[in-house]
From TrEMBL:
The lineage of its organism: Bacteria, Pseudomonadati, Pseudomonadota, Gammaproteobacteria, Lysobacterales. GO terms for biological process: carbohydrate metabolic process; glycoprotein catabolic process. GO terms for cellular component: cytosol. It comes from the Bacteria. Pfam families: Glyco_hydro_92 (PF07971), Glyco_hydro_92N (PF17678). GO terms for molecular function: carbohydrate binding; peptide-N4-(N-acetyl-beta-glucosaminyl)asparagine amidase activity. Residues 39-290 form the Glycosyl hydrolase family 92 N-terminal domain. Residues 1-26 form the signal peptide. This is Glycoside hydrolase family 92 protein. It comes from Luteibacter pinisoli. Keywords: Hydrolase, Signal.
């Protein structure tokens, strides 16, 4: 994903005979180790991964995590998750975070425990003691799925965090002999520290509950977030501060002890300091959030935050993660297990619940709505997640997929423009990135038999989004068959992405028996040809008069250019629905493979993309750190040379993922990078969501069993899996030879076993003319 200003993300590296640590079959194999214990939330917290290490539950509304910085707009990209592993101080713990996004926002309800004197500003990380932030050491950090802890060395406070769906739980152990305080700062935002809070409120209610909220002018303008907070020990005194007007309201204690000047305060720069005196036991705080109101936050706290038993809530979070991650039983070496299960963990963080216990949620019209019969989810990085993260959910979490599709439809019904979300969170729209990629999310679910929603409304929503002329040059696209570059930036990318979305819509319409709709959008799916220049062999941007824009440099990439976060070398392969047509346009299979090889084998200086943050993870022109490249390694299958897909996948898996804080070469993008790893480790990938096919690559795990929600079990198994045997020699499905290079969703969900026999040299497996996966040009479907 990216911002509207495009603040976003980027020959084998060694001979195949060299040892690949991720493939080495260890004697222990990790057997007997739980999936939960293999997760390392620190992976991706450094470099460009943009993940957070804090506590959350699967698809939870609360992401309670430490923030090392909330910088100005210029530096916001680096801190999209609020935390950078290379930093040495923490400014507090906030309750909302994106996981792996390429743009920053959130960081709501920042809380900092303080022992001793209280400072009111975070101060500079380069000047210890200049503010309330505290230094810390990674040696004191403990990060698990559902739990995070760290020692704040400047205060000698041990901070522990856990969470459930709507509530974050804090436990702070203060040093003896020093007064304990909790600072609540409503000013910071990960998007921009200063000037982004339009209005905020803070008050202490008669029962001691602290409530408030704020409206921010961040990525989604006018976003509202409310909270309710309670402590397990009485507040001895407190101050509510409006820093903008230098107003301070002081008071004492809880119920019946209200000699304060005011119980509430409002403004744009609010803080609260809550004092607890010298404590002889840990302080527990619990915070519920809501996008609707303070009263709803209180209701969420009453229902989901009962009691102050921190250890019980931590155990609940662990149990939920153990149950969720148990969908895959993996037999692999320890490092592979860590990478795999952390990827599965990251893939199951978004979209996030955005609904209160009474069913209410805030929609893109900024009004309050009530969900009926489904849970409402938001945080949709749709340009990314439609490719693999959402298809992974249709396989592993189909019940959640029903809620996801219902949420997209509900958001469309509340949209002032009557279209599906593009990039939304907290129910609010940002209009970031291109395409109408909620369409393939819905279409893929429908084609795969996930039907717990109104199909008629789903089709209506998809068609409305695909025909809304004012959006992204769609009016020209429908008139000319392409988006003209003299009318719209990134026109070449928009043309091919719209064409794929159209194709997926056609698949859903056909499955619904709406043949007229299917025919209309199947015709539009061929519009990719209108921007593909067969003379140069590249996707190119055309002007409204029909001419290609000149001059043309296929290596050129810039924000707002002909392409979205990429160049012609990267985007010319984006025809997932019609690779056979692309092969023909490039002059046949041999020419196609030769050009595809040149993508990976090119000598490219990474510094040439320094001005485009998102083009990372380079192997030649291939950029694994950004989504337009994610399907490319699988395209050799379509040209009858699957062994080259196997080679390229080996190259990618070896160089692009490691179980370290810097182990993701690009933004995880709300689970897309992680979902790519999971599918590829299992041996197949959804090149064209909506086809119900998974294109076979090669496995990177010894054995994995998918424990599906329908009660079936599907196993991927291998023999001779090691660095000396990187090629697929034979594949069987349920004991029968499988000559084709794809399997279907129905075959996986029926249960059974996909077995790979690996060998040292390339084989003839999958090379027959009829072995290739689906393409619209070569299929009657």
């Amino acid at each position: 994903m990216s911002s509207s200003t495009r603040l976003r993300r980027g020959l084998l590296a060694a001979a195949l005979s060299l040892a690949l640590p991720a493939l080495a079959v260890a004697a222990s194999g990790g057997k007997g180790t739980s999936a939960w214990s293999a997760v390392d939330p620190m992976i991706g917290t450094g470099g460009d991964g943009h993940t957070f290490p804090g506590a959350t539950v699967p698809f939870g509304m609360v992401q309670l995590s430490p923030d090392t910085a909330m910088p100005d707009f210029k530096h916001a990209y680096k801190y999209a998750a609020g935390y950078q592993f290379a930093d040495s101080s923490i400014m507090g713990f906030s309750h909302t975070h994106f996981s792996g996004s390429g743009h920053s926002d959130l960081g709501d309800v920042l809380v900092m425990p303080i022992a001793g004197d209280v400072k009111l500003d975070p101060g500079s990380p380069d000047q210890p003691g200049s503010g309330y932030r505290s230094r810390f050491s990674h040696s004191t950090e403990k990060a698990e799925a559902g739990y995070y802890a760290v020692t704040l060395s400047d205060y000698d406070v041990r901070a522990e965090l856990t969470a459930n769906a709507r509530v974050g739980f804090h436990r702070y152990t203060f040093p003896k002999g020093k007064p304990a305080h909790v600072l609540l700062d409503l000013r910071p935002s990960i998007y921009d520290y200063d000037g982004k809070v339009l209005w905020s409120t803070l008050r202490v209610r008669a029962d001691g509950t602290v409530t408030g909220g704020r409206t921010t002018r961040g990525w989604a303008p006018g976003r509202q977030l409310y909270f309710a907070m309670r402590f397990n020990q009485p507040i001895t005194s407190r101050e509510l501060k409006n820093r903008e007007e230098k107003i301070v309201y002081r008071g004492f204690g809880g119920p019946g002890n209200r000699n304060d000047d005011a119980d509430g305060i409002s403004g744009r720069a609010l803080e609260g300091v809550f004092d607890f005196g010298n404590l002889d036991k840990p302080l527990v705080a619990k915070v519920a959030i809501s996008t609707v109101s303070e009263d709803n936050a209180i209701a969420n706290l009453d229902k989901d935050g009962e009691g102050f038993d921190f250890d019980a809530r931590r155990a609940d979070a662990r149990q939920l993660w153990e149950k969720t991650l148990a969908v895959v039983d993996l037999q692999a070496p320890a490092e592979t297990r860590k990478t795999f299960y952390t990827a599965l963990y990251h893939a199951m963080l978004s979209p996030t619940l955005s609904m209160d216990v009474n069913g209410q949620y805030r929609g893109p019209d900024n009004q309050v709505h009530t969900a009926k019969g489904f849970d409402f989810y938001s945080t949709w990085s749709l340009w990314d997640v439609y490719r693999a993260q959402q298809p992974l959910m249709t396989l592993l979490e189909p019940n959640k997929s029903n809620d996801f599709v219902s949420s997209l439809i509900a958001a469309r019904e509340a949209s002032p423009f009557g279209i599906l979300p593009v990039w939304s969170y907290g129910g609010m729209e940002t209009w970031c990135m291109i395409g109408y990629h909620a369409v393939p999310v819905i279409a893929d679910a429908y084609v795969k038999g996930i039907r717990g929603y109104d199909g008629g409304k789903a089709l209506e929503a998809m068609v409305a989004s695909a025909t809304y002329g004012p959006y992204g040059g769609l009016d020209d696209y429908m008139k000319l068959g392409y988006v003209p570059i003299d009318h719209q930036p990134e026109a070449a990318s928009k043309t091919v992405e719209y064409a794929f979305d159209d194709w997926s819509l056609a698949q859903a319409a056909k499955a619904m028996g709406k043949d007229d709709v299917a025919a209309t959008f199947m015709k539009r799916a061929g519009n990719w040809k209108n921007s593909f220049d067969t003379k140069t062999g590249f996707l190119r941007a055309r002007k409204a008069d029909g001419n290609y824009r000149e001059p043309f440099d296929p290596s050129s990439a810039a924000y707002g250019s002909d392409y979205t976060e990429g160049n012609a070398w990267q985007y010319s392969w984006y025809v997932p629905q019609d690779i056979a047509g692309l092969i023909q346009a490039l002059g046949g299979s041999d020419a196609f493979v030769k050009k595809l090889d040149s993508v990976f084998d090119a000598k490219v200086d990474p510094k040439s993309f320094a001005h485009v943050e998102d083009i990372t993870g380079l192997i030649g022109w291939y950029a694994h750190g950004n989504e337009p490249s994610h399907h490319v390694a699988y395209l050799y299958d379509y040209a009858g040379q699957p062994w080259k897909t196997q080679e390229r996948l080996t190259q990618i898996m070896k160089t692009q993922y490691t179980p370290t804080p810097t182990g993701l070469v690009g933004n995880d993008d709300l689970g897309q990078m992680s979902a790519w790893y999971i599918f590829s480790a299992l041996g197949f990938y959804p090149v064209a969501p909506g086809s119900s096919q998974y294109v076979i690559g090669r496995p990177f795990v010894e054995k994995a069993t998918l424990n599906l929600q329908n009660g079936k079990h599907f196993t991927v198994s291998t023999d001779h899996l090691d660095a000396k045997h990187p090629y697929v020699g034979k594949v069987t499905l349920n004991g029968k030879d499988l000559a084709r290079t794809w399997v279907t969703h129905e075959e996986l969900t029926a249960g059974g076993e996909l077995h790979f026999s690996m060998q040292a040299e390339p084989s003839k497996w999958g090379t027959a003319a009829d072995a290739a996966p689906y393409s619209m040009s070569s299929s009657a479907n």
